[in-house]
Amino acid sequence: YELCQQQLSKQDHYDFGLRNIKSVLGAAGALKRNEPEYSEDLILFRALRDMNITKFVTEDAKLFLDLMSDLFPSIDAPTVDYGVLEQAIRADLTANNLQEVAFMIEKCIQVYEIKLTRHGNMLVGRTGSGKSTAWRTLVNALTALASDPEIKDDTFQRVRTSVLNPKAISNDELYGAYDMATMEWQEGILPKIMREACRDETDDQKWLIFDGPVDTLWIESMNTCLDDNKLLTLINGERIAMVPQVSLLFEVGDLSVASPATVSRAGMIYLDMKDLGWQPYMTSWLNTHENEPQLELLTRLVERLIAPLLEFRATCLLYTSPSPRDS
Fold it and tell me: Measured between alpha carbons, how far is 265 from 215 in angstroms, rounded to an integer?
């Protein structure tokens, strides 16, 4: 981790502290129980790789793997076969007219893996990088597997989601507050949703999705939920304990204003628009056209013009844009 801090780029969502080390040790312990025939070096290699590679930008991911190869020169990690889970993910992408891009399938599996070890996770990336598609596809895939009578695997459970934009409402509406005129407690939206989810005694997974910007005005009150206490503490003294079936998922553009305490408490998955590209969007859009002559014309125009136009937009001196080349 000292090498990572020294050689990798500085990103707001990177954390190499004690909580990260603890999550790696937890993942290594689970891997040892599931694969007792693996050597300790291989278990540590896989735990370090799987728990960290998800948050790195493309350039840092390559450098991280090079560092891992230097630290474990004799380790050749086997490729993990996700079998029916990957098949279910591909089937859901196809059913929704989305493309079976290796990047998106990998991110869906990363969300699945990281939720096995952390109850609070963040999907970080700009608009259009596929954050919503990743968790929605995984939800549909897990629900389909849980509903399939031929699949005898208890790790696949139905998933129910509650989506909330914390910036669309005030802090008092989110968490609850006292009415200053009557001093009566007015319950917030989040405690109501979490209480109902925690009271549900079924084995279904309940995911609370926070789709909105992270800032210190509301995220700091979630720190006790994100750490090992798993308690939502309200200002009226009430505490709501999270059960194992309830987990938190944050969908954010960046963490530029989040405190290190918040970053260290959550698992991170970074989605880069450059890795997804524009081609999947265009292919899905072209698939909606049923007029064959029109489709052929649009396909030729896309193949001939889109790439040069994006190149011109990215390099033209008369137009400056913060967006990457593939946006």
Answer: 15
CB contact burial 93-113 (16+ within 10 A = b; e otherwise): beeeebbebebbbbbbbbbbb
DSSP character for 277?
A: -
> Computed from CA positions of residues 276, 281, 286, 288, in that sequence, does the dihedral angle turn out positive or negative?
positive
CB contact at 8 A, 75 and 45: yes
Burial of 127 (0-12, 13-18, 19+ CB in 10 A): exposed
Q: What's the CA dihedral at 45, 50, 52, 56 to 10 degrees? A: 120
Q: Which are the contacts of 6, defined by CB distance < 8 A and separation ≥ 6? A: none
Give the CA radius of gyration of the chain: 22
Q: Can you say whether residue 125 is alpha, beta or left, with left for phi > 0 and alpha for psi between -120 and 50 degrees? A: left
Is residue 9 within 8 A of residue 59, CB to CB? The reply is yes
Q: Which tens digits make up the pLDDT trace of 253-269?
A: 888 888 888 888 888 89
Give the pair of three-digit tokens for residue 139. 């939800």
Are residues 275 and 103 in contact, defined by beta-carbon separation less than 8 angstroms? Answer: yes
Map tokens 């959550």 to a residue: 266
Q: What length does the chain have?
A: 327
Q: Are 259 and 211 in contact (CB under 8 A)?
A: no
Q: Which residue has the higher pLDDT, 62 or 320?
A: 62
Mean pLDDT over 47-53 rounds to 82
Calculate the alpha carbon distances from 200 to 105, 174, 196, 244, 253 in Å.
Answer: 30, 21, 6, 11, 31
- Average pLDDT over the chain, rounded to an integer: 84
Judge contact between 268 and 55, C-beta under 8 A: yes
Q: How many CB atoms lie within 10 A of CB 26?
A: 15
DSSP assignment of 224-246, as one string? HHHSTT-EEE-TTS-EEEPPTTE
pLDDT of residue 318: 56
The rounded distance, in Å, linking the Cα atoms of 108 and 123 is 11
List beta partners, residue 205. Answer: 159
